[in-house]
């Protein structure tokens, strides 16, 4: 008998399996697994493009297990049914309202891919068939704050960014993302040497790691790049941002978090309130 294979055994099977495997499982996740991707759940698919058998979860799982009968498996009809989920998923559908983070290693460690609420995704080349745990990430409803002594408010910084959108080459924008964020808020410079350094200098209470619900005026940060400088851009609301260089060197154009990740291969760190070292 497969783990959680019969509805009347769900709670008991989960209680037995979790201690043995070290699985971080919520009661909601155990109680709703029926092989269908229902509202509020996070679902793995055996094949790309949401095809094949489904494995559905209502909460975070730190370790799926690796062998039957003690693993979390694909339960829906189709290709892959009965196969253990760990290292066997190709695509996902996040039907919850939260971002779900898929990890390369068990217990929420290693490389990861964030899946925004309400979206379908193929797992990237790092995570495809290398999924070992997933975690529901809480998202903030916090708005951009005008409480850091910036010369411009959040709304004024957004207006500045929109008014400076250009597809023409401007040498002062090349590789100067953090400097441009300072300009948007009315500073002559940001006060930080790089975007990544800027992120590390911001007090933790003003940072929202992994949260993709960035309010207008919030600053979205990334790590990576050839020199490790990372990247930063300003939210204009609705999941859109204004960024240097992404649509041409020396330009300032509208883009998304996903575009920075896929085209530049940078890792999204999260968003922060407009705190600048220039004023601290």
Secondary-structure element sequence? HHEEEEEEEHHHEEEEEHE
Structural class by sheet pairing and helices: alpha+beta
Strand content: 15-25%
How is the main sheet built? 6 strands, antiparallel
Helix content: 10-25%
Query: What is the name of the CATH topology of the largest domain?
Result: Gamma-B Crystallin, domain 1
CATH class of the largest domain: Mainly Beta
CATH superfamily of the largest domain: Crystallins
Q: If classified by CATH, what would the architecture of the largest domain be?
A: Sandwich
Shape: elongated
Please give the alpha-carbon distance between the first and last residues.
Answer: 62 Å
Mean of pLDDT: 87
- Count of individual helical segments: 6
Count of the separate structural domains: 2
Description:
- The strands form 3 sheets. Strands 8-13-9-10-11-12 form a 6-stranded antiparallel beta sheet, sandwiched between helices. A 4-stranded antiparallel beta sheet has the order 2-1-3-6.
- The protein is 18% helix and 25% strand.
- With 280 residues, the chain is α+β, with helices and mostly antiparallel strands.
- The chain has 2 domains: 7-137, Crystallins (Gamma-B Crystallin, domain 1, Sandwich), CATH 2.60.20; 154-279, Alpha-Beta Complex (endopeptidase fold (from Nostoc punctiforme)).
- The chain has 6 helices and 13 strands.
Keywords:
single chain; 280 residues; alpha+beta; Gamma-B Crystallin, domain 1; endopeptidase fold (from Nostoc punctiforme); six-stranded antiparallel β-sheet; four-stranded antiparallel β-sheet; 25% strand
């Amino acid at each position: 008998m497969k783990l959680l294979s019969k509805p009347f055994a769900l709670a008991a099977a989960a209680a037995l399996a979790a201690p043995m495997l070290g699985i971080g499982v919520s009661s909601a996740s155990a109680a709703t697994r029926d092989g269908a991707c229902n509202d509020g759940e996070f679902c793995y698919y055996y094949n790309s493009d949401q095809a094949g058998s489904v494995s559905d979860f209502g909460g975070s799982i730190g370790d799926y297990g690796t062998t039957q009968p003690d693993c979390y498996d694909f339960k829906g009809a189709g290709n892959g049914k009965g196969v253990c989920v760990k290292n066997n998923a190709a695509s996902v559908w996040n039907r919850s309202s939260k971002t779900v983070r898929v990890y390369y290693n068990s217990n929420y460690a290693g490389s990861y891919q964030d899946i925004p609420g309400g979206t379908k995704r193929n797992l990237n080349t790092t995570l495809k068939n290398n999924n070992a745990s997933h975690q529901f990430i809480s998202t903030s409803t916090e708005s951009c704050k005008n409480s850091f002594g910036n010369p411009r408010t959040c709304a004024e910084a957004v207006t500045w960014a929109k008014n400076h959108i250009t597809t023409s080459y401007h040498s002062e924008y090349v590789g100067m993302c953090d400097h441009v964020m300072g300009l948007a808020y009315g500073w002559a410079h940001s006060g930080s040497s790089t975007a990544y350094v800027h992120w590390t200098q911001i007090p933790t209470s003003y940072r929202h790691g992994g949260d993709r619900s960035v309010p207008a005026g919030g600053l979205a940060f990334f790590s990576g790049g050839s020199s490790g400088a990372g990247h930063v851009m300003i939210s204009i609301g609705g999941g859109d941002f204004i960024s240097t260089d992404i649509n041409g060197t020396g330009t300032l154009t509208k883009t998304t978090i996903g575009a920075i990740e896929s085209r530049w291969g940078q890792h999204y760190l999260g968003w922060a309130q407009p705190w600048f070292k220039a004023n601290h």
